[in-house]
Amino acid sequence: MPLALLLALSASAAEPLVFEHRAFTLDNGLRVVLHAEPRAPLVSIQLLVAAGARDDLEGLGGTAHLLEHGMFTGTARLPGQGFDLELEALGGDANAWTHYDWTGFTTTVPPGALERALVLEADRLASPSLDPAAVATQRRVVQAEAAGILSTPHGQDAAVLASLLYPGQHPYGRDLMGLAGPRGARDLGLLDPAALRAFHHGHYAPSGCVLAIAGDVDPAQAEAWVRSSYGAIPARPAAERGAAPAPALVGEQRWWLPADVGAATVSMGWRGVPVGHPDEPALALLAWLLSHDSRLGRLVERGRATELHAWSDSWQLGGGFVITAKAEDGRLAPLQRAVDRELARLARQGPEHASLARAQGAWRNRWLRAADPVQGRASLLAQCVAMGLEPGCSPALLARYQAVQPADIQRVARDLVEAQGRVLLSVSSETGRRRGLPGSEPVVLP
Fold this sequence. Notes:
The chain is an alpha+beta fold. The chain has 16 helices and twelve strands. It has helices spanning about 5-15, 65-70, 80-90, 115-125, 130-150, 155-165, 180-190, 195-205, 220-230, 280-290, 295-300, 330-350, 355-370, 375-385, 395-400, 405-415, and strands at about 20-25, 30-35, 45-50, 95-100, 105-110, 210-215, 250-260, 265-270, 305-315, 320-325, 420-430, 440. It has a six-stranded mixed sheet, sandwiched between helices. A six-stranded mixed sheet has the order 9-10-8-11-7-12, with helices on both faces. Helix 1 runs parallel beside helix 13, helix 4 (about 115-125) packs parallel to helix 9 and helix 12 (about 330-350) packs across helix 16. The longest helix has 19 residues, at about 130-150.
């Protein structure tokens, strides 16, 4: 199929991402976007808060994550289980997540329950209970959640790799859960309701939040309900967020993480680019190609690797590009050399047009699937606003991926090959260390 026809099909496929919407800002600074989808049987309410692991209180890792859990401890008006019970009675459910830059809250209700749900959600944003006993319970929940992750094979790999890519006091080197080792556990124990209230006051100001609502709603009516509920929250200054530069990565740093795992792995990590950077789409497509449509697949076919995948992610202050390979026989050095050869080949030649078209098709499919449920539409609208873009920015963002050319992939691959620094993290048992990468220093967890 000619490339011009592929691009034309890509453009037409982006049309489902065009959502009619109503956007406005309340007097207290809360940014709001509404999208009506009358065919949907539900309404999704999504709140993005400019508070993440990068904002954790000094010396108190896990603040943002524990407060996310603390937001489910009831409100001043509905303490204890009152909030949860009323939301359940409305036929709704709620969930949340914490990342480096943002904390997100998602609530789904039937259309007829929207007015009351907005009252409940606004009350929670304005005055979470943060009762000491409830906070203590949520602290134990977080500890159990983290223990479950850290006890699984390779459960701590990602947190350790992040701390190596962003060392020192850089916020992206922090474990998102605040529990990457004994120090994190101690930090979590020091977080009391008073500290959480202070964090909430600074980072949960309406002006630091984005509210998106999508589903079977009447936009004019929904706006009136938002203004009467969220609009009643007093305005206050949002906490300023730091933008600390990351210390330079110099040379190739080799580390070994001793862990009771089955097959040993090697993760090759580079600093990525911040969200919105011109190279963000090309790096993401390069990662897809390495994982799904490159000569590295032969390593799996021949049994030299049992798993091999790459990913690229971008955040407000930076990003990460990682290639991970798992060796069934524990011999990591041959895998690392094979990955380097393939990356160097792409840096010299770039991908074939057909391979790039497959990668772009996969990304197009991912975007369209994300927009399928109303939860996905609310999320896409909220993310656009959070990035400082127009609420309907999704088609333009997808178009950036469809515009990537083989020369762009070649260039970002060359940038990785020629990078001034990178991190190689081997993960294996004590007995498997001799098959790891030579010259690796053991990782010392805090």
